[in-house]
Structures are given as C-alpha cells and as structure tokens.
Amino acid sequence: MTNTNTKNTTLKLNNGREIPVIGLGTYKLFKSRPGEVETAIKIAIDAGYRHFDCAWFYGNEAEVGTAIRKKIAEGKVKREELFITSKLWNNFHRKDRVVPMLKETLSSLKLDYLDLYLIHWPFAFKESASLWPIDEGESAFSDIDYLETWQGMEECLNLGLTKSIGVSNFNAEQIDRLLKNCKVKPVCNQVEVNPNLNQKKLIEFCRSKDIVVVGYCPLGRSEYAGLPGFPDPTILDPKVAEIGKKYNKTPAQVVLNYLVSLGISVIPKSVTKSRILENINIFDFTLAAEDLSVPRFLQ
Ligand SMILES: NC(=O)c1ccc[n+]([C@@H]2O[C@H](COP(=O)([O-])OP(=O)(O)OC[C@H]3O[C@@H](n4cnc5c(N)ncnc54)[C@H](OP(=O)(O)O)[C@@H]3O)[C@@H](O)[C@H]2O)c1
Hints:
By secondary structure, the chain is an alpha/beta fold. The chain has one domain (10-222, 264-270): Alpha-Beta Barrel (TIM Barrel). The chain is built from eleven helices and 14 strands. It has helices at 36-47, 61-73, 95-109, 146-158, 172-180, 200-208, 238-247, 251-261, 273-280, 289-292, 295-298, and strands at residues 10-12, 18-20, 24-25, 51-53, 83-88, 116-119, 124-125, 134-135, 138-139, 141-142, 165-168, 188-192, 212-216, 265-266. α5 (172-180) links the parallel β11 and β12 (188-192). α3 crosses α4. The longest helix has 15 residues, at 95-109. The chain starts with 9 loop residues before the first strand and ends with a helix. Bound molecules: NADP nicotinamide-adenine-dinucleotide phosphate. NADP nicotinamide-adenine-dinucleotide phosphate binds at residues 25-27, 53, 120, 168-169, 190, 216-223, 235, 252, 267-272, 275, 278-279.
C-alpha cells in the first residue's frame, strides 16, 4: 500500500497504476431518486473521494458524468486525479459489442477514457431488449465465453478508451483460466466483501496473482437487514458499536477500517451527506488485536 494515512491511500495495480482504497459506490438503480447520485458525487469530490464505482447497468452514468463535469469546471478536481470505474453488462459479451458499449458509457459519463473497465459478471445473458432476459422463469443465459469478451476488453485498452481492465464476480478457477488465455492480465477482481463474507481465500488467491480485490457491499447491504436469507450486517452488531466507542468511530468506520486492513479497496455507497463524509474518515486509527478477535471479524 502507498500513501498511507490519507484519504487518498492507494493500492498498486499490476500495470503500475494506482487505485484509491476508498471509493464511492453508485448502485441503486431503483432506490436513488433522480438527482440524488449527482449530488452525492459532488459532496464526495468535495470531501476528498477520487474513486467512483459506476456501471452501465446502474442506469445513472449520465448523472455521475454531470457531477464530475461540474466539479472539473469549478476547478475542484482535475480529470487525471479521478479514478473512474465502469462495467460491461451481461447482454453485451460478444467481442464486437464490447468497444461500442464502452463508448456508450464514456458518452454518458462525458469522459474520454475510464481508469478501469470490468466485465461485470463471468456469464453472458441472451442478447435482448430486456436487461435481465427470462426464459420460462429462469435467467436466459447465452454461451458466449468470457474469454471472447476479454478480447474485446483488451481492444478497449489498446484503443486508449480505458487505462486498465479487470473482472468482477469471478472465482479463482475463472481467473486462473483467464490468466492462461489472455494477452493482458486483469488488474482487479471486484467481489462482495464484508465481515459476513470475508473472501479470505479469494483475496489470498488474487494477491498471489498480483490482482487487487475491490470489495463491494462492504457495509453488508444494511437496507436488506431482517429479510430472509440476508445475514444481519456487521454495522448493526452492538459489539462493533462498542469497539467504535473506544476509537470515537461509528460501526461503519470500524468495518471499513477492518476491510481496508485486509489490503483491499472498498466502495461503500451512500447518498447521505453525513455518511459520505463518515465513510472516508477511516484512516486515522488502527484496530487493536483484541478488537479484531470479535467473532464477526473471524468468520
Ligand atoms: N460488481 C458488482 O456486481 C456489484 C454488486 C453490488 C454492488 N456493487 C458496487 O458496490 C457499491 C456498494 O455496494 P452496495 O451499495 O450494495 O452496499 P453497501 O455500500 O454495503 O451499503 C449501502 C447501504 O448502506 C447505507 N450506508 C452507507 N453508509 C452508511 C453508514 N455510514 N452507516 C449506515 N449505513 C450506511 C446506504 O444508505 P444511504 O445511501 O441511504 O446513505 C445504503 O443503504 C455499489 O453501490 C456498487 O457501486 C458492485
């Protein structure tokens, strides 16, 4: 890790570039009201966030782009100081669709290039007008191999449309197969990581291949708390609140600090000003060993 103890602490990617360890998630296609994400991005840039996690699927890249453009115009930030990620959706895995889809994303984001473009999932959907095509009650998959898709990703890199390429939601076997069949190695694997799903083995595997893990849902999808099938997020655990009191930190700050200590980047999402500020204020304390022995963190 480089530049420790600042908001812009970064991790080195295998192509020599750097990714900030903290970023702002922008997902909530159906939950954020129009304009909310634009406001969140502006607050985040003012608060020091430089890493933004976007996706074509989230349906709000135009809003993200408007916010970025305004902040650049105001002189608050320069394009080269930002790290912008987007992702290729499952309907567009055919090799010849990858470059056009990235161009569409760039046009929405009002940018000339991305910092990181990811294959969102290792499987493809049937090409269809529906974002999530269904056949007889089941997701309708196509048999396009992610190795074919990766060739399109490499083309994006060669054309200068993105500085780095990577994957999301890939397991170790899928990464291994990709590494054996690629010209350019992925720099990153973005997967769910939170104390309920600490991904210890996958993080170790990725580190052994010089691939950075970016952890999504770091706060454990607190909006689903109490629903069947969703474990209670750690930020609602009273023991974590107790630990936080020792450091004068909130449960979310304790959890994010713990995750960053695993050597990964995290992308908590919020459209609430106080939480956006809270989630980046995590670099001025180190959890003691006794605090890391809370069962939650060991699962
Ligand atoms: N690659 C993938 O397949 C994939 C999948 C899922 C997510 N992602 C990415 O990862 C990002 C984060 O994941 P996520 O949005 O699902 O989950 P998350 O970041 O773990 O949790 C977001 C939820 O926590 C709330 N929250 C934020 N900060 C908080 C705090 N300090 N205290 C209490 N609650 C807080 C947010 O509410 P408010 O917004 O109302 O403040 C929101 O309801 C996404 O936005 C997206 O960019 C990627």
